[in-house]
Amino acid sequence: MEFEAVIGLEIHVELNCATKMFCDCPNRPGDEPNINTCPTCLWFPGAIPRFSQEALEKASLLCLGLGAELQPRSAFDQKVYYYPDLPKGFQLSQAHLPLSCGGAIDITDENGKPKRLRIHHIHMEEDVAKLVHEMEGRLPISLVDFNRAGSPLVEIVTEPDFRAPYEAMEFLKALRLQVRSVGSSECSMENGTMRVDANISIRPRGTTQMNTKVEVKNMNSIRHIGDAIVYEINRQSAAVQAGETVILHTRLWDPEKKATLPMRAKFEGPCVLEPAVPVIELSPDWIEKMRSRLPEMPAARAGRFVTQHGLTGEEALFLSSDAEVAGYFEALIEQGIAPRTAFHWLTTQLVPAVKDRRQELGSSPVTPARFAVLLKMLAQNEINANAAREVLLHLFDSDEAPGAIVSARGFRQVSDHATLDSLIDKVLSAEPAAVADVRSGQGKAMGFLIGQVMQASGGKANPKIIRELLAKKLGAIS
Q1: DSSP string for 64-85
Q2: Which of 105, 193, 229, 369 is a plausible cystine mate for 165, CB 3.0–4.6 Å?
């Protein structure tokens, strides 16, 4: 029997608010344990939560950025369960009236076909404390760090639209890009600001039944998510074929063993309305105000780059995946640089150079204005491509203008016909075999001769003029 997977995701995204969701404690992941606490986030009896306006705004922008519809009314519930990282016995979450419903992300599947993956709803909730497991001598101990307790989260719950690990991975990449573009979260799985649980079940291919699912947790990279889904599909398929029953439970992903391991039975505790946090009511005007704050989203920007600047779809998507790079690209165009030139030099030369120096593009000494001057000199044949690369490196270490660097270091391109004629004659005399090859129609030989002339000029010759003069001379030689 052939099976297909039915996969849904639950994505927890930590909002980058200055404070926690229900108190004024700093929301700073990575601080020393238990320094950002107060009676509210330590859940002392009688402490009253105060809902954060910033959390509401950042959560709302996130929802709108994913195409979800903000609901006029949402409310917090007490999600009742007990675990060492939740000693008050309940978590404040929006179980019954979520902040938004709907939304979707478009991806391209493994076959190159477009596919829309739907979001069921997005709700807000407070994060729990963090358990730290250590060894005290030979004895394992567990400690609790309350810095994270009460941090503002949103949980994005998808529809079970995914049929392959690839789709889940592409969805998460696109979602991460959208959320980062909105500015609500860094969405770093490595740092814990994005955490993903996958609900996985299998069914006979061609049927529509929904079978018992298994939830997989503890995945700290998109690649691990794909690996865990693959493993779980194979595990469940083998179990069903062996006549075993898939039981509802939670499993952990072990990246070293590359296997999912049983964790605990799935438990759904009761949810009751939280009386200390008022119902959230959003007016149409407020929702539109939030919508007006949305930046241009990556998919829209990519489409505009194709139609407005003539980039290919792949090039436009590459640029749009980083708002800083996209902004720099448009700044170059505003300086009069052709889109194709801007794309090529930005992505193949400047961005790698910035990364090599562990700098940020926006704070790099190579500003769009300085880089544009360099590219204009290249376009006007004042320097050649090799010289432009050299000058670019100097721009990182000097505040001199590109023109001054070119003059001071002798990078200006040689275009004088008399000078180039002399160099070409010397190369032709030294390379009779290559001359014969060119005459016999071997195109590579022409490239070789151009390279020899470039070398003889110290890399300063204008290759376009070299080619023209070579073609003329070789046609005249008897």
Answers
A1: HHTTPEEPSEE--EEEE--BTT
A2: 229
